[in-house]
Write a structure and sequence with these properties.
Distance between the termini: 52 Å
Number of strands: 13
CATH superfamily of one domain: NAD(P)-binding Rossmann-like Domain
Strand order of the largest sheet: 3-2-1-4-5-6-11
Shape: globular
Number of helices: 11
CATH topology of one domain: Rossmann fold
Helix content: 25-40%
CATH class of one domain: Alpha Beta
Strand content: 15-25%
Largest sheet: 7 strands, parallel
């Protein structure tokens, strides 16, 4: 029997690595797509010899997208950017996934999965708005596409808890933008990878048919931004004062910080914090994909152990 093929765009990213492993474990040939194939070489150990194949593709080269997609049973689009110009957000979140979805339709892929962002239909940030535009563009090109909207994704080397733990090591205090009242529903990266796999492979029949559906992915509990920082402090021992910072003042500071090469805060990120990042009532979620969500409390201490006094990060500092 011929092995099935999964093409994963954004394979080298935080979520992508887990998605590649999930499909490789299930016996798929996985095309791990990135802008440079060499950057995906490390993923080859996730499967047997020749099972994970690094592939180079770029939005400026439609032929490379065709090569990556041709013959694939399922196509996954994961890329996202946290800080960019409006043009940059639009290219990565809307234009590129639309190109990939069009290629998937052209080459008769059985399923297309687009990873978007929770609250993209409610937030006024450019990040969120371009993610929503991406959903609409993908569904136009591939009407039976499955859309996944995760809340902030946690796991080893994530971009949220690890980021604030690093800041806590060098800053005397951390800002509570908008008073820290924004609500989040963190979801474990392993659960997101399971959701991608389920969305790509569940049968196209019955009440659990995922085709054309939007799933909002959140963990079992809702927390305020302040509560998440307090949990990070408890897990690392890096206790710092939390200084409330009104949105207007945060935006003013961000307008300067976003000029840095790798900005710790942008005006658009401040704007995104004005909208709660939680699963909407009545939406499809992890349970509809047969997945039990993982609690943050049980994962956080191990995730952040390297930031504790005497941990690996401390020893090498």
């Amino acid at each position: 029997m011929q092995q099935k093929v999964a093409t994963v765009f954004g394979a080298t990213g935080f979520i992508g690595r887990h998605v590649v492993r999930a499909f490789a474990d299930a016996g798929y040939i996985v095309r791990a797509v990135s802008r440079s194939a060499t950057k995906a070489y490390f993923l080859r150990v996730y499967g047997d010899v020749g099972q994970v194949v690094p592939v180079q593709a770029h939005t400026n080269d439609p032929a490379s997208i065709d090569v990556a997609v041709r013959g694939a049973d399922v196509v996954i689009y994961l890329p996202g950017v946290l800080h960019a110009s409006t043009k940059g957000f639009t290219r990565v979140h809307r234009d590129y996934p639309a190109q990939v979805a069009e290629a998937a339709t052209r080459h008769h892929a059985k399923r297309f999965v687009f990873v978007s962002a929770l609250a993209c239909d409610r937030s006024q940030s450019v990040y969120a708005q371009t993610k929503r535009e991406g959903e609409l563009a993908v569904l136009k090109a591939f009407p039976k596409a499955v859309v996944l909207r995760p809340s902030i994704v946690f796991g080893p080397e994530d971009g949220f808890f690890g980021r604030f733990a690093k800041l806590a090591r060098i800053m005397p205090a951390l800002p509570l933008i908008g008073g820290g009242h924004t609500k989040f529903q963190p979801v474990y990266v392993g659960d997101v990878a399971k959701a991608v796999f389920a969305a790509a492979t569940k049968p196209a029949s019955g009440t659990t048919n995922p085709e054309g559906r939007i799933y909002e992915l959140g963990g079992p509990r809702i927390y305020s931004f302040k509560e998440l920082l307090q949990m990070m402090f408890k897990a690392t021992g890096l206790v710092r004062p939390l200084m409330p910072l009104p949105f207007a003042l945060a935006a003013a500071k961000a307008s300067v910080l976003q000029l840095l090469p790798s900005p710790p805060l942008t005006v658009d990120q401040v704007k995104s914090l004005k909208t709660d990042n939680i699963v909407a009532s009545g939406s499809f979620g992890l349970s509809d994909l047969g997945i039990e969500s993982t609690a943050l409390e049980g994962m956080l201490p191990a995730m952040l152990s390297r930031y504790r006094e005497g941990g690996p990060a401390r020893k090498s500092a």
